Amino acid sequence: MDSNAIFEAVQQIFRDNFDDEELVLTRETCADDIEDWDSLEQINLLTAIEKKFGLKFGLADVRDLQNVGDLLDLIERMTA
Q1: What secondary structure letter does DSSP report for 33?
Q2: Max alpha carbon distance in the chain (Å)?
Q3: Name one Pfam family in it (predicted).
């Protein structure tokens, strides 16, 4: 899966989880940019991403994620 396909899939997961079809992500988007993005929603997002891509994140994988770009890079590394 190429980086554009990963981005589109992640954006759709965010739209579904936040129930906002108008939500537009950038690599710089972070939790401070989305009102309802709290620690519980972080877990929901990661679980949905794991399911979509057939991944299993460890604490070390997600501990230092700062923004959507970091998340996309992680997914690309784990699916390569």
Answers
A1: G
A2: 32
A3: PP-binding
Cα–Cα distance for residue pair 70/63, rounded to 1 Å: 11
CATH number of the domain within which 68 lies? 1.10.1200.10
Task: Categorize the per-residue pLDDT at 1 as very low, low, confident or very high, splitting at 50, 70 and 90.
Answer: confident
Residue pair 75/10 in contact (Cβ under 8 Å)? The answer is yes
- What confidence tens digit (pLDDT) does each residue in 7-33 have? 999 999 999 999 999 999 999 999 999
Q: What is the rounded distance in angstroms from the CA atom of residue 50 to the CA atom of residue 55?
A: 4
For 31, the domain range is 3-79
Domain count, the chain: 1
- CA separation for the pair 80, 77 (Å, rounded): 5
